[in-house]
Amino acid sequence: MQASSRSRLALVPFVALMFTVLLSLSVHAESNNTEASRGLQMSVYKTPTCGCCQKWVDYMAANGFTNKVIELDNLNPLKTQKGIAGRYRSCHTGVITTTHGEYVFEGHVPAEYVKQFLENPPAGAIGLSVPGMPVGSPGMEVGERKDYYQVLLLNDDGTDTIFAHVNAP
């Protein structure tokens, strides 16, 4: 066998390896593009009569979320099913399913914190909550008034930690 034939044969495993690597990168990039092009899709559960909930839905849409609104007369069974304790509840519940799991966003959570949470969901977290209806939160705007409130990280063991302070004095 000539030297040039042997050197070409020696390249076959290298070329096969490079082909495999490039193919896997292509498949990975395509799956990421598919997930990214999907956008941030959220199911929002609210009562039919709540105006501030619709304002929050509109605010989230303006911030890149595609919302599917589901109107229910009684949200409590859903909130219980999703693990949202009474002290964390508000007037609506957003649910987003990702490759990491399903997460809840209870109440008037600002879009920036939803996105921040979704970038790297903490282990054991079920989502975020803004309990009650703080004035100045998205959907609860009243003139220039902006009350201080906290965005809480909800854990699957029923505890919470502060995720963010909003409008801190």
The backbone outline, from C-alpha atoms, is: globular
Helix content: 25-40%
Our measurement of the CA-to-CA distance between the termini, rounded to an integer number of angstroms, reads 82 Å
Model regions low in confidence, pLDDT < 50 over at least 5 residues: 11-37
> What is the number of beta strands?
7
Rg over CA atoms, rounded to whole Å, is 23 Å
Q: What is the CATH architecture annotation of the largest domain? A: 3-Layer(aba) Sandwich
Sketch the topology as an H/E string, one letter per element: HEHEHEEHEEE
The CATH class of the largest domain: Alpha Beta
Largest sheet: 7 strands, mixed
CATH third-level topology of the largest domain: Glutaredoxin
Please state roughly what percent of the residues sit in beta strands, choosing from under 5%, 5-15%, 15-25%, 25-35%, 35-45% or over 45%. 25-35%
Describe the strand arrangement of the main beta sheet, using strand numbers: 2-1-3-4-5-6-7
Mean pLDDT: 84
SS content category: alpha/beta
How many helices in DSSP terms? 4
What this model shows, in words?
This protein has 169 residues and is of the alpha/beta class. It has four helices and seven strands; from the N terminus they run αβαβαββαβββ. The chain has a seven-stranded mixed sheet with strand order 2-1-3-4-5-6-7, covered by helices on one side. A hairpin with a 4-residue loop joins β3 and β4. It is globular and about 85 Å long.
